[in-house]
């Protein structure tokens, strides 16, 4: 009988306790939140009948921050080699089987997977035995799951009633368990399966009467994949009605010994143009007609039982009815060989470089002389041309007659890009010319002929001369000019003047005017000497070869040179050299060739234009125009200077100067920028500002000599300068020609020492 619930009759059971919290069912294991299941009661008191052992693998903590199991063990798998024994009933040959498999344990979520190794002809399905999931322990602990500590080499694991014996593991698994403090025994072999042993013994004794014919072409395919022998051949079908000689390309594929034939059809041949004349296949040597399907097969199949629903086939051991067909191989192909392409005799005439190297290395063939096969009665129809209609250009009109759909004329784009204006390089040849006529007024006129290398156009300008009675200006608009004595309505494109037609001493007839070219500007001389392989009159090697043939045995020539040099200096002035060469080789060399030799062996006495004289001339132009607004120019420089290093390219400096309208001529600005450009192609624009500041940084006014030099570089390359020819001739008069070095290069000995002016240009 219980005591009444009155003071003094009850006892406090919580005396000495310090935990009074309620229990919770959600907790974290290995950093993953989950429903934990069994927990302690209120105040941490175990409840009756509860198992508080952990449900997941518990790993010892290491160094570093805690990470959840799915992150710490990501892509980590413990792999064990295992086997299980399966009982076999109602079979005399076997009582049990040993089935080998692999057990995978995933530490990230304690899941297990079992996969059986596949074998041939085992008679039962193989592969995945147990899909990946958490596997409960055998009864009576089926409320818990397998963890990593239950897997080790030598252990037996019961998964759903099937016992797996773990016999070995991989190095990663062994290292993983060792780090957790688990001793891993060495692996051992699985017991031998008696039934597999019996199968191997019986299979070894069952040899067929005739071994199966195994055709293995894998090695040939791997070694020679994408290797193709290419031959060119012809088929002479001219004996048949409307037949002719047809050209082919024969491909032999080394990967599978197949051949392919493609026909080469010329334009307007009148034949259809299929992509392939003979599709890729093995080509028989002897063609006796097409065989029925299955008649020419690799194996002969015999029908043992012929009933409708009960058919059985076996291979014919004796190969009864097999067709002995021979096919072309690489040994049968060679230049000059005649191959049979289904009764079409194709003659191999040539091959490519890969085919030559193949036969040279494998068969030692050295003769690959191609065969030029042609018929005597071959006739090639000529395209009929039609005369120029007079509408549009000749090229456009004649090009419209070549195709059904007219197309625009294709211009030489590479030539245009190579010789178009690039910075200071204009690629324009300017020559001074005069008209050959008996009229004294017309004979006194001077013209500048400009030839543009980019598109072979010509422009003629007449410099104005004061009090001449002729206004001057543009004489001929820039255009391509025909050569004289050509029909007005030609059948082909007319011949136009090109760069080789213009040189000093040449006579050109342009629109009825007979021009004589008597000089050129300095830029034209330099550009033609630079492109000497295109301009033979500026090629000093070809000119010296002409002189060598003419002066080698001419003793009077050496005497005349020494006669004009009484002091034996080895050089004399340009005028003396020019007059002497005109007398000696005037009928061999043109004037331009004589000038080229004189320039090649010239020693100039004038120095190049220095930067101070150029700046002085530029400041003089600014002073005359009273230009002092350099602040906008400086702001423009700073705006273009993205790197903020005080340096700009030559083109940017030129554009900046032009944008603020600095009153400097183009030739003077180009000369100034050229002299101030550094090796990297950039200019310090602070130097430009200082050079143009004539108010604070003045440079003395150029002397008359400097003014002459100013005229020299100012007039170079400008067709509106009336004194252009006089200045180029004046420039040549100021240097001497070292004829002694020229004679030495020609192999002619002289009686005086070499010139002391310095080393020549060669």
Topology:
Blueprint: E1 26-29, E2 32-35, H1 69-72, E3 78-87, E4 96-106, E5 111-116, E6 128-133, E7 156-159, E8 162-169, H2 171-179, H3 194-205, H4 218-224, E9 228-236, E10 245-253, E11 258-264, E12 278-281, E13 301-306, E14 311-315, E15 338-340, E16 345-351, H5 353-362, H6 394-399, H7 413-419, E17 428-435, H8 440-443, E18 446-452, E19 457-462, E20 473-479, E21 507-510, E22 513-520, H9 522-530, H10 540-551, H11 555-563, E23 572-573, H12 574-585, H13 591-600, E24 602-604, H14 611-624, H15 631-640, E25 647-649, H16 650-659, H17 666-676, E26 682-684, H18 685-692, H19 704-715, H20 724-733, E27 735-737, H21 739-745
Antiparallel strand pairs: 1-2, 3-4, 3-8, 4-5, 5-6, 7-8, 9-10, 9-16, 10-11, 11-12, 13-14, 15-16, 17-18, 17-22, 18-19, 19-20, 21-22, 23-27, 24-27, 25-26
Helix pairs in contact: 12-13, 14-17, 15-16
Descriptors:
PH-domain like; 762 residues; single chain; alpha+beta; disordered C terminus; six-stranded antiparallel beta sheet
Verbal overview:
Its main location: cytoplasm. Residues 700-725 are annotated as: Disordered. One of its GO terms (cellular component) is microtubule. Residues 628-663 form the EF-hand domain. Microtubule inner protein (MIP) part of the dynein-decorated doublet microtubules (DMTs) in cilia axoneme, which is required for motile cilia beating. The chain has 21 helices and 27 strands. Among the domains are: 69-199, PH-domain like (Roll), CATH 2.30.29; 221-362, PH-domain like; 413-521, Roll (PH-domain like), CATH 2.30.29; 539-605 and 738-745. Helix 12 (574-585) packs across helix 13 and helix 15 crosses helix 16. The strands form seven sheets. It has a six-stranded antiparallel β-sheet with strand order 6-5-4-3-8-7. The protein is 25% helix and 21% strand. The model is unreliable at 604-608, 704-720 and 753-762 (pLDDT under 50). The chain is flat, with a radius of gyration of 51 Å. The chain is α+β, with helices and mostly antiparallel strands and 762 residues long.
């Amino acid at each position: 009988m219980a005591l009444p619930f009155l003071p003094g009759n009850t006892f406090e059971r919580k005396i000495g306790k310090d935990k009074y919290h309620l229990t919770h069912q959600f907790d974290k294991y290995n950093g993953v939140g989950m429903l934990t299941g069994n927990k302690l009661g209120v105040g941490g008191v175990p409840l009756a009948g509860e198992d508080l052992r952990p449900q997941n693998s518990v790993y010892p903590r290491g160094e570093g921050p805690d990470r959840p199991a799915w992150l710490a063990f990501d892509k980590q798998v413990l792999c064990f080699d295992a086997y299980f024994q399966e009982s076999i009933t109602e079979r005399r040959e076997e009582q049990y089987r040993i089935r080998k498999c692999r057990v995978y344990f995933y530490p990230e979520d304690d899941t297990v997977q079992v996969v059986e190794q596949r074998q041939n002809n085992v008679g039962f399905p193989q592969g995945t035995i147990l899909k990946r999931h958490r596997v409960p322990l055998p009864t009576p602990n089926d409320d818990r799951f397998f963890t990593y500590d239950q897997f080790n080499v030598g252990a037996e694991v019961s998964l759903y009633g099937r016992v797996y014996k773990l016999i070995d593991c991989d190095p990663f698994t062994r290292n993983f368990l060792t780090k957790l403090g688990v001793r891993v025994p060495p692996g051992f072999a699985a017991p031998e399966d008696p039934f597999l042993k019996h199968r191997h013994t019986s299979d070894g004794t069952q040899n067929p009467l005739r071994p199966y014919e195994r055709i293995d072409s894998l090695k040939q395919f791997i070694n020679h994949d994408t290797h193709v022998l290419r031959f060119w051949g012809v088929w002479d079908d001219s004996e048949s009605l409307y037949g002719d000689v047809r050209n082919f390309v024969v491909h032999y594929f080394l990967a599978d010994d197949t051949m392919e034939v493609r026909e080469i059809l010329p334009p307007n041949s009148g034949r259809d143009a299929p992509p392939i004349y003979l599709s890729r296949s093995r080509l028989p040597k002897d063609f006796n007609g097409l065989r029925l399907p299955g008649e020419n097969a690799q194996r002969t199949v015999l029908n043992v039982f012929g009933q409708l629903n009960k058919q059985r086939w076996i291979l014919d051991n004796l190969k009864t009815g097999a067709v002995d067909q021979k096919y072309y191989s690489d040994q049968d192909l060679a230049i000059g060989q005649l191959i049979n392409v289904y009764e079409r005799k194709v003659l191999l005439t040539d091959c490519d470089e890969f085919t030559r190297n193949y036969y040279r290395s494998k068969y030692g063939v050295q003769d690959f002389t191609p065969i030029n096969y042609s018929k005597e009665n071959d006739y090639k129809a000529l395209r009929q041309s039609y005369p120029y209609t007079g509408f549009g250009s000749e090229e456009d009109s004649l090009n419209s007659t070549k195709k059904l759909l007219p197309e625009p004329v294709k211009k030489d784009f590479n030539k245009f890009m190579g010789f178009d204006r690039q910075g200071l390089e204009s690629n324009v040849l300017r020559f001074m010319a005069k008209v050959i006529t008996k009229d004294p007024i017309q004979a006194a006129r001077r013209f500048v002929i400009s030839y543009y290398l980019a598109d072979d156009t010509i422009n003629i300008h007449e410099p104005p001369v004061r009090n001449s009675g002729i206004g001057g200006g543009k004489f001929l608009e820039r255009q391509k000019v025909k050569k004289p004595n050509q029909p007005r309505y030609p059948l082909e494109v007319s011949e136009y003047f090109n760069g080789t037609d213009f040189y000093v001493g040449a006579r050109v007839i342009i629109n009825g005017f007979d021009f004589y070219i008597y000089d050129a500007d300095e830029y034209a001389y330099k550009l033609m000497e630079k492109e000497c392989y295109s301009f033979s009159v500026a090629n000093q090697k070809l000119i010296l070869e002409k002189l060598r043939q003419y002066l080698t045995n001419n003793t009077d020539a050496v005497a005349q040179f020494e006669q004009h040099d009484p002091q034996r200096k080895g050089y004399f002035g340009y005028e003396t050299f020019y007059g002497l060469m005109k007398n000696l080789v005037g009928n061999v060399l043109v004037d331009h060739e004589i000038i080229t030799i004189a320039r090649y062996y010239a020693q100039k006495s004038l120095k190049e234009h220095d930067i101070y004289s150029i700046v002085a001339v530029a400041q003089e132009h600014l002073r005359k125009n009273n230009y002092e607004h350099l602040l906008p120019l400086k702001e423009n420089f700073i705006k273009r200077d993205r790197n903020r290093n005080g340096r700009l390219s030559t083109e940017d400096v030129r554009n900046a100067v032009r944008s603020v309208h600095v009153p400097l001529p183009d030739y003077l600005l180009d000369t100034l920028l050229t002299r101030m450009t550094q090796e990297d192609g950039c200019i310090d624009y602070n130097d430009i500002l200082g050079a143009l500041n004539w108010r604070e940084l003045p440079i003395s006014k150029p002397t008359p000599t400097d003014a002459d030099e100013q005229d020299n570089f100012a007039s170079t390359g400008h067709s509106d300068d009336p004194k252009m020819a006089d200045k180029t001739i004046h420039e040549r008069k100021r240097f001497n020609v070292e004829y002694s070095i020229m004679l030495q290069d020609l192999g002619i000995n002289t009686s005086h020492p070499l010139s002391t002016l310095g080393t020549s240009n060669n």
